[in-house]
Amino acid sequence: MDKDNIDVKQFSGAEARCLCPFCDCGNDSGDVNGSRRGRLTASINETKGLFYCFRCEEGFNAVSLYARVYGVDVRVAYGELLDGFISGYT
Ligand SMILES: [Zn+2]
């Protein structure tokens, strides 16, 4: 198993588990409160398009996750996602 990739495991139905890209729970540099790397602390619900990390207790939908990853405002993220969606279908 390659630890450099985000490890996503199908959990049940539409729910998948992965390492949280924000709190670095896949990083081996230290154990915080006994939490070891390899724990899949984040939940992705594919049907609802929701992401939630149980460790840093951050929850995102598709738009706010995009905004966080790219460091832009939620409104900007929404616009860019919408532009991408429209241009992809014209
Ligand atoms: Zn997290």
How would you characterize this protein structure?
The protein is α+β, with helices and mostly antiparallel strands and 90 residues long. It folds into two domains: 1-57, no CATH class; 63-90, no CATH class. Helices cover 26% and strands 22% of the residues. The mean pLDDT is 78. Zinc ion is lined by residues 20, 22-23, 25, 41-42, 53, 55-56, 58.
Which characteristics define this entry?
90 residues, alpha+beta, 2 domains, five-stranded antiparallel beta sheet, 5 strands, globular, binds zinc ion
Number of helices: 2
Order of helices and strands: EEEEEHH
SS content category? alpha+beta
Low-pLDDT ranges: none
Mean pLDDT: 78
Whole-number tally of structural domains = 2
Which kinds of small molecule does this entry bind, naming each only once? zinc ion
Strand order of the largest sheet: 1-2-3-4-5
User: Helix proportion of residues, in percent?
Assistant: 25-40%
Strand content: 15-25%
Number of DSSP E strands: 5
| Distance N to C terminus | 39 Å
Shape: globular
Oligomeric state of the chains present here: single chain
Radius of gyration, in angstroms, nearest whole number: 15 Å
